[in-house]
Amino acid sequence: MRNLSLYLCLLILCCAIPATAQVKDITTDSVTSSIPKSELVDTVYVPQTAIEQLGDTPTVYVMPLGQQIFENKYFQMTYIGVPLVVAGIATQGCTSQHFKDLRDAYVPTFDYSYDDYLQYAPAAAMLIMKACGVKGRSSWGRMIVSDVFSVALMAGIVNGLKYSVGTMRPDNSTRNSFPSGHTATAFMAAHMLHKEYGNVSPWISVGGYTVAAVVGVSRQLNNRHWISDVLAGAGIGILSVEFGYFFADQIFKEKGLYNIDKPDFTIPDKPSHLGLTMGLTLPLAPIEIGNGQQLISTTGSRMGIDGAWYINRYVGIGGSAAVASMPTTLASDTERRLSIDAATVALGAYGSIPMGESSRFRANLKALLGCNFIDNSALLPEVMTLDKAGFYYEIGASISVVARRHFGVSVFCDYGGHCFSATHTPSSQFGITREGRYNYMLHTTTIGATTSILF
């Protein structure tokens, strides 16, 4: 009789739960321990009591582990700001000097004060929209309290670091370079704008961050900050807003909250992008200029823009424009400071493959052709007269991630071939008897990162 009762119970259980709904209850340790580890990585197991019943069919909503991480509240608060601060710390020293050399090579006299005012533009846009009645995330009171917390955190951290770290500015004016206060203010203002109105339109956020990026680049062009100062300042500005709004949320709860900030982590159908690239350039071989003489280059820096429009998910067309500077010496006269300053423009094909089904990570390739322009005066103008332009080709590979619907980051490795011609004049000073026109090739590898707007 007991066995008959057991069989009846099992029959009822099998009828109640259709075979198509695979549900596992992990309310006991014994059941949890029986779940294979491989399943735990990719599957969320929901207690049976929590399953929503739609008619007679149980429905389970399963969130992939990667999506769980990206949509975690604390990950959202830190996944942009923390890497920027870490990058700022990591690029101090010789790396920052490389990017200063790049600035000195192309715009040594750049000196404009527009960034003193532009840093406040995103905050001004936020206040104007609020005053015009555009409904954003918060009421006036809640927004002001959130922003006061953010400003207080940013100002405290920036000034505390400025006067404790004591980094000399690149123009040798004062020892309060790290981090950049202008950049921190600009990215704080841009992130405030994003918090309040990013849900109205993602392009409002894109506009705010673009302005902030212009401020950061301008601080370097004005020779007031190292790239490490700018990266750290951007991260501090973003983190200050995240924690400022977090503290205000603890105080106000649901009061004065109109539109909850839910970042859009959906993956674009096509990986079309336009981004700012920066990296370190490594020459692969010296340049032979005759009579055993060599031009020997060392690690330099490269910065530019890169973009592509994709025809479908896998194939696109686009191009890049960049400037690079590499410290160079003559093998027979290592005391003489030379430089290979090369600007490039190139167009070509782009390819991209998702790393997994519906993955936000992608592997990318590109093959470009174009022109390069090398500054003659920075090399040996007494001996070599370079042509104004030469042939250039570039092959690159990268790994990219969709951080948000309209924002992506990638790390890349590019190979560049710079072809150029020069007319030689014999010089006893440098021990060169070569005369006439000769062709040369400069081989480089650039390793760096790109931050992109996705469209």
Low-confidence spans: 1-43
Alpha carbon gap, first and last residue: 68 Å
Main sheet summary: 8 strands, antiparallel, barrel
The average pLDDT value, as a whole number, equals: 86
Predict the CATH topology of the largest domain. Answer: Porin
Strand content: 25-35%
Coarse structural class = alpha+beta
Rg over alpha carbons: 28 Å
Tally of contiguous helical segments: 13
> How do the strands of the widest beta sheet line up side by side?
3-6-7-8-9-11-12-13
Count up the domains. 2
- Oligomeric status of the shown chains? single chain
The H/E string reads: HHHEEHHHHHHHHHHEEEEEEEEEEE
Please give the CATH architecture of the largest domain: Beta Barrel
Helix content: 25-40%
The level-1 CATH class of the largest domain = Mainly Beta
Shape: globular
The number of strands is 13
